[in-house]
Predict the structure.
Amino acid sequence: MSAEVSEDIKLEEGKKESLNFIEEQLVKDLAEGKNGRRMQTRFPPEPNGYLHIGHAKAIALDFGLAQKYGGVCNLRMDDTNPQKEDTEYVEAIKRDIEWLGFKWGNIYYASDYFQKLWDFAVALIKQGRAYVDEQTSEQIAEQKGTPTQPGVNSPYRDRPVEENLRLFNEMNSGKMEPGKMVLRAKIDMANPNMHFRDPIMYRVLNMPHWRTGTQWNAYPMYDFTHGQCDYWEGVTHSWCTLEFVSHRPLYDLFVDWAKEVDGTDHPIDDNRPRQTEFNKLNLTHILLSKRNLLVLVKEGVVNGWDDPRMPTICGFRRRGYSPEGILSFINKIGYTKFDALNQMSLFEAAVRDDLNKRAQRVSAVINPVKLVIANFPEGEIEVYQAVNNPENEADGTHEIVFSRELWIEREDFMEEAPKKFFRLGPGKQVRLKNSYIIQCSENIEECVVKDAEGNIVEIHAELIPETKTGQANSDMKIKGKTIHWVSCQHCLEAEVRNYDRLWMVENPRDEVAAYSKEHGDVRGIEAMRPFLNPNSLEIKKAYVEEWLKTRKPMDYLQFLRIGYYNVDPDSTPEHLVFNRTVGLTDAWKKMNK
């Protein structure tokens, strides 16, 4: 999917750049002098879970454009629901934003405005714009009507102001039963926009807040909080996803009312937050709902929020995705006014391209079989310099040791090889990476050693001395491929965690919903289980170069000929642990041809 873009706009530096529709509007607003040519955004997550990859798209927009145009982006925690929020999530959100490479100007909390929101609600009651309703939630929903049929006024809509004020205070007393009363805005029960049909502004929860303690028992709703917080903070551009298109008129109305109550003199049209909506980031083979992600964590399907199979930002970080790769993908798919489902393979390709530039190349043998070089002296070694990263000369080299006994991948030898098998087998030649060309005898009995069950436990070959890499005549031409290896006496044992996609279906959200409906409205893990990949994690023992004990957690690596890996935080010099980030090629595409 390509981004929806405007015509080329000439930027100050004299270059032309295609801008998406949001950036184009921002440039226009700045050129017209709106908000005093000031630009301020905000990223407002709810601290009720860890950020997922969808949030990264909003972060890239809010922080990225503020950075580009000399503005400021603040971080504001939307902490109006104390039932689900926690400081753990607040700290995780901050870590994720910083890891992606961004800094906020200020950090705010919706709870900073609880008193101001309460006073604003009281002012609206006094103006006859709000009332306390004691109908049940079911009654309120039924009376709202449908998009084609007007709603019915609440029987409590015309309560006297004094009674509404008294009941509103009782809502916050801690003595009122949750759900018994709500505060509603008095707007228009016949409005075609359902959000205008007397929306709820406050509800009773009777629980302490993690920041304000027991001061509040009635809490504001999102729609009554978000716009005013933007306005009071001086936000100029409020960017959100497409589901908030129908909320925008209510957002603007509450901002207008807040301006009236504040009594400010500045013209609201040139000094207000402007809400613009863009498409969510939807990817195949993942499920992004925090509610569903919490189920996976609580049911033990994954090992926490940062499990490398999770679509959380911290999960992708632990798996070995780079922030640059993530932001590159977001930039490629762009921002549009319509939703689409992006292929996970496009995301993986963007990450693969980025890792190719930064990953250190090393040898690791995951499915080992011993290779004995028969004509190399026992006890002797040769030390070579291996290039760390051919894409970046500054990354230097590291030492690898060659000896008589090596580990190679079992897949690199075939006892009865077809004609187009260009790896090792009877009578075949290959080059060992950074070393010699070797060849096996055509006699299979001289070539392999087997155990009692007939399994190959050793392969015997001989090197061709004049073919050593770097020698004058080392460029001998052979049909065989170059294969990787590690010295048996100069390697380390390691744990390799090969992660794969958690979901077997392309669109798990729709599949889970359909299964739930078909099987009597089953929910949670029971609806998810049929679509989970039972092979999403394979743990293997491997042999790796000794140099890898010097690598730090989260370092980016390429296991030669295998894939991209990183050092897991669990790893220690005594017990190395590596996570597979992504393959060298798209394995899923090959499997599904």
